[in-house]
């Protein structure tokens, strides 16, 4: 079997920020060590071919926040590690979190994106059709859960974020209420909330041994 650290370093494209890259590599390495052996063996054999990266950016305001998976014409899947995993420079003043313990949500996000690749999803969401894409999200969630990752914890975080932005709930420790959403932003958040709720409900229907 291929050495995990060597594999990760070979399949990771850095942001150019040593602290961020150090932490991102640590997250991916931890994720791989948690994978079932057969899944890791398949990945080693290029089924699927993966690359991980954190975007390069010149200004903090340019940093894109979301993690995602994208297929390419040569069959390689590109996994972008977003701000929830490596730290949000727009909040932390450009400081990554290399000394922060890796949390279950970060690992769940990586597992979900890799699950898309294993399932062969194109991972393209048609504009304005977020809810119609949910079946692929649900498939990736279920596969990641079967590998042992806590996807439900991540989805609850996403669901709460959308509900908070819509003014529907507020937890202790939340920031001050967000600015009022315009009509377009409100529709998008409502679609996101619907999608997260649907995905959580789908996880609840899994067999007990596969539940998060």
Any low-confidence stretches, pLDDT <50, length ≥5?
A: 89-94
The helicity comes to 40-55%
**First-last Cα distance:** 28 Å
Question: Care to count the β-strands?
Answer: 4
Could you explain the architecture of this structure?
About 5% of the residues have low confidence. The chain contains nine helices and four strands; from the N terminus they run αβααβββαααααα. The radius of gyration is 17 Å and the shape is globular. By secondary structure, it is an alpha/beta fold. The chain has a four-stranded mixed β-sheet. The two termini are about 30 Å apart. It folds into two domains: about 110 residues, no CATH class; about 90 residues, no CATH class. Helix content is about 50%, strand content about 10%. Helix 1 crosses helix 2 and helix 2 crosses helix 6.
Features:
single chain; 212 residues; alpha/beta; four-stranded mixed sheet; 8% strand; globular
Secondary-structure map with pairings?
Blueprint: H1 4-10, E1 12-13, H2 18-34, H3 37-44, E2 49-53, E3 68-71, E4 76-80, H4 83-86, H5 89-92, H6 104-119, H7 134-146, H8 151-165, H9 183-204
Parallel strand pairs: 1-2, 2-4
Antiparallel strand pairs: 3-4
Helix pairs in contact: 1-2, 2-6, 6-7, 7-9, 8-9
Task: Give a brief rundown of this model.
With 212 residues, this protein is an alpha/beta fold. The protein has helices at residues 4-10, 18-34, 37-44, 83-86, 89-92, 104-119, 134-146, 151-165, 183-204; strands at 12-13, 49-53, 68-71, 76-80.
């Amino acid at each position: 079997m291929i050495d995990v650290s060597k594999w990760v370093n070979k399949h990771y494209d850095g942001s150019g920020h040593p602290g961020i890259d150090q932490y991102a590599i640590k997250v991916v390495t931890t994720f791989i060590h948690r994978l079932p052996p057969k899944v890791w063996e398949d990945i080693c054999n290029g089924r699927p071919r993966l690359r991980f990266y954190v975007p390069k950016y010149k200004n903090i305001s340019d940093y894109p926040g979301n993690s995602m998976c994208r297929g390419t014409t040569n069959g390689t899947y590109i996994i972008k590690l977003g701000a929830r995993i490596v730290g949000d420079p727009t909040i932390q003043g450009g400081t990554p979190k290399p000394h922060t313990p890796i949390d279950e949500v970060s690992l769940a996000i990586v597992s979900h994106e890799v699950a898309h690749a294993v399932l062969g999803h194109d991972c393209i969401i048609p504009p304005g059709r977020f809810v119609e894409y949910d079946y692929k999200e649900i498939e990736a969630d279920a596969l990641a859960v079967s590998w042992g990752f806590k996807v439900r914890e991540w989805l609850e975080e996403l669901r709460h974020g959308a509900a908070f932005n819509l003014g529907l709930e507020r937890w202790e420790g939340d920031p001050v209420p967000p600015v009022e959403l315009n009509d377009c932003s409100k529709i998008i958040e409502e679609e996101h909330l619907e999608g997260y709720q649907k995905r959580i409900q789908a996880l609840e229907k899994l067999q007990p041994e596969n539940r998060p």
